[in-house]
Design goal:
This protein has 3 domains: 11-107; 108-147; 157-181. The strands form 2 sheets. A two-stranded antiparallel ribbon has the order 1-2. Strands 3-4 form a two-stranded antiparallel sheet. Helix 3 runs antiparallel to helix 5 (68-76) and helix 4 crosses helix 5 (68-76). By secondary structure, it is mainly α. It has helices at 11-20, 24-27, 29-39, 45-56, 68-76, 91-96, 99-105, 109-146, 150-153, 169-180, and strands at 79-82, 85-88, 158-159, 165-166.
Length: 186
């Protein structure tokens, strides 16, 4: 509505200056009250802000009157009930208490990120150490099986200086003994 002899006022600019400008979130009493009711509520902050994040995404969340988190969201004023579902109360709240605000105020975000990074590092270390142990174990087993004892050395073929393989004496002696035994009758 434009009054006679008054300059044109752009409502969007006025709202942006009053509520959405940097620092207004902390200086406006109403926005501080809503923020404090959400952040200082005696409940699981992660669950509360997660529920609000679902509402921000436009998910259809039923107003469950037995859920204390729904009550906290409604009492803070950030959501309203429309046809039995929770909705963000208005566009100002949607823009002030947006995804960035939720992510910034999720409790323990940095701690959770560090714990997840630590777990990923543990898994990588476990996988690499397992692979290294497998390789070292395989090499040790291979070396153990290839280990030659002095008794076996005599039975292995040896090379002559000209490169030909000599028949081992022990094997030759054993074969001759086996051949010398008479075969028992059946």
């Amino acid at each position: 509505m434009r009054l006679a002899n008054s300059p044109t006022i752009d409502v969007d600019d006025l709202v942006s200056d009053m509520y959405l400008a940097p620092g207004r979130r902390d200086s406006d009493d109403n926005l501080k009250l809503v923020s404090n009711r959400l952040l200082l509520a005696d409940c699981d902050q992660f669950a509360l802000l997660g529920l609000y994040r679902h509402v921000l995404r436009g998910k259809r969340l039923v107003d469950d009157e037995t859920n204390p988190l729904c009550d906290i969201l409604k009492l803070s004023g950030v959501v309203k009930v429309e046809q039995g579902y929770l909705k963000v109360r208005n566009e100002i709240y949607r823009r002030v208490f947006d995804y960035a605000w939720v992510e910034k105020h999720l409790p323990g975000v940095e701690v959770r990120r560090q714990k997840e990074a630590f777990r990923r590092g543990q898994v990588r270390a476990f996988v690499f150490s397992g692979a290294a142990l497998t390789v070292v174990g395989s090499l040790a087993l291979f070396a153990f099986r290839r280990q030659i004892s002095p008794g076996i050395m005599r039975t292995l073929p040896a090379r002559k200086p000209n490169g030909q393989i000599r028949k081992p004496r022990v094997l030759t002696q054993r074969r001759s003994k086996l051949n010398a035994r008479p075969i028992p009758p059946i």
